[in-house]
Each structure stands twice: as structure tokens, then as C-alpha cells.
Amino acid sequence: MSAVVSLTNVHKRFGAVKVLNGVSFEVGRGEVAAVIGQSGSGKSTALRCINALERIEEGTIEVCGHAVHDPKLDRRALRRDVGIVFQSYNLFPHLTAEQNIMLAPMCVKSLSKADARTLAQDVLARVGLAEKADHYPEQLSGGQQQRVAIARSLAMQPKLMLFDEVTSALDPQLTGEVLKVMEDLARGGMTMILVTHEMSFARKVATKVVYMHRGTVWETGPGAMLDDPQTPELRKFVGGEM
Ligand code: ADP
Ligand code: MG
């Protein structure tokens, strides 16, 4: 299996605070990696390093053939291959769902308006929102807005999708509809790394679980590892989350 993402001995500090302390893991094509761990363990930082939103001090990060650690990295080329979705949807409030999605394909990929609209309708259908194309963000629920944000990323046809706690701000019912979209994406073969607190989702959908503790990968394995933790730290974490 060819690795889409490969982190090797990654170190990152913010001032005096060491946040990543030798992080290594790989994600192969079509894999779904769930990154779990308590608040402050470095999950978001690791994800941001993968997309070159943070610079690392030591180690290497290869993503879709890009050497992310290289100071000469072509960030635009990297970000054409990698989609990222955060907890906050960051949709433009004055644009409809469809217009929010059309923006990047037109600006970055120079698609015509007609082609961008066709594409937007296609990705909206994939997240189950075909009939909401003309709605403005404030007319949509939080879960629907998050699905538009996911559709917006999909419109760029990424090779890798990163999700950072995308359901944390949603109530359980809306969480379910967003997780369903992510599960469909996973089943469709999308390579994904998701930071999540949804342990049952991680167990069901993830091909690999990465448990981070104090800036390192403390334990990693298939989803089933959550049923049989090898370290006291993961046992305690899983116990608290369930
Ligand atoms: P997680 O996502 O697992 O909760 P983060 O990666 O967000 O953890 O944060 C790990 C640690 O790094 C925390 O102690 C946090 O306060 C610190 N940190 C994150 N981002 C910054 C930043 N931009 N400046 C300073 N400290 C930061
Ligand atoms: Mg975080």
C-alpha cells in the first residue's frame, strides 16, 4: 500500500512548549485514520502540520508526494491535493451554499461559472443537500452548514481530506448526519485523517486509530484496539470517553 501521508519523527514547539515530540505514523491510500487523545495532546497541531499550516522543527512529513517539511514547499500545490474541514464552518454568510462551493474552483482552478455550478450541484448531492443549493448559511442548520463546508472541500477534488473535530459543535442528531457523510466518503475510497471524540465512529469506520498522548503517538492499531488498550493511558482515555 503506497503511503499518502507519512510523518517521521516530527517535532514542533510553540515557544517553550513542546507540542509534538517525535510523532511518526503513516496513512495509506484509501485508509481512514482516526486521531484520538485528550485535549492538548497535539492532535490539531499534527493535522495543521500535515497541511503546512504550521512549520516543524525536526522530522519529515510527506503528503501526496509533497515534502511538506521542505522550506521550498509549494503550498498552493499541496493544498490543491489536501482538503481540510474544521469545527467552525467558515462559510461566507452573504453567499448561498452553491456560491460558497463555486468560489474556489473558479478562482483557483479557473473553472467557468457554468462548470463550477455543475460541480457544486454534484458535491451538494453527495452530502445530501441537493435541494439546499440556493439557501444562505443562516437558513441552514449547523449540521447542514458543516456538510456544505465538506462539499466545498470535495469540489476541489482532493486526494486527502483532513477533519478536525467537525462535529464537536453539533448536537447528537446533527452530528449523526455529518458522520454519515464522512462514512460515505470513507466507503467511496477517500483517504482521510480525522481528529474525533466519536469513539464508536472511530471503531466502526477507521482502518487505523492513532492515540496521541503528550505529543507522541502512544498507541496505534486498527479500530478494534479500542476494545483492548495496551497502555493504562489509553484504557483510561477510552473509559472516560465511553
Ligand atoms: P489538541 O488538538 O490535541 O487538543 P493542540 O494541538 O491544539 O491539541 O494543542 C497542543 C498544545 O499546543 C496545547 O498545549 C496548546 O495550548 C498548544 N498550542 C496549540 N497551538 C498553539 C499556538 N498557536 N501557540 C501556542 N501554543 C499552542
Ligand atoms: Mg484540537
From TrEMBL:
GO molecular function: ABC-type amino acid transporter activity; ATP binding; ATP hydrolysis activity
Topological type in the membrane: Peripheral membrane protein
Subcellular location: Cell membrane
The keyword Cell membrane is annotated on this UniProt entry: yes
Pfam families registered for this protein in UniProt: ABC_tran
InterPro entries: AAA+_ATPase, ABC_ATPase_HisP-typ, ABC_transporter-like_ATP-bd, ABC_transporter-like_CS, MetN_ABC_transporter-like, P-loop_NTPase
Gene3D superfamilies, per database record: P-loop containing nucleotide triphosphate hydrolases
One GO cellular component term noted in the UniProt record for this chain: plasma membrane
Superkingdom, taxonomy of origin: Bacteria
Keywords: Amino-acid transport, ATP-binding, Cell membrane, Membrane, Nucleotide-binding, Transport
Domain (ABC transporter) ranges: 5-239
Keyword Thylakoid recorded: no
Major subcellular site: membrane
Protein family per UniProt: Belongs to the ABC transporter superfamily.
Protein name per UniProt: Amino acid ABC transporter ATP-binding protein
Organism: Siculibacillus lacustris
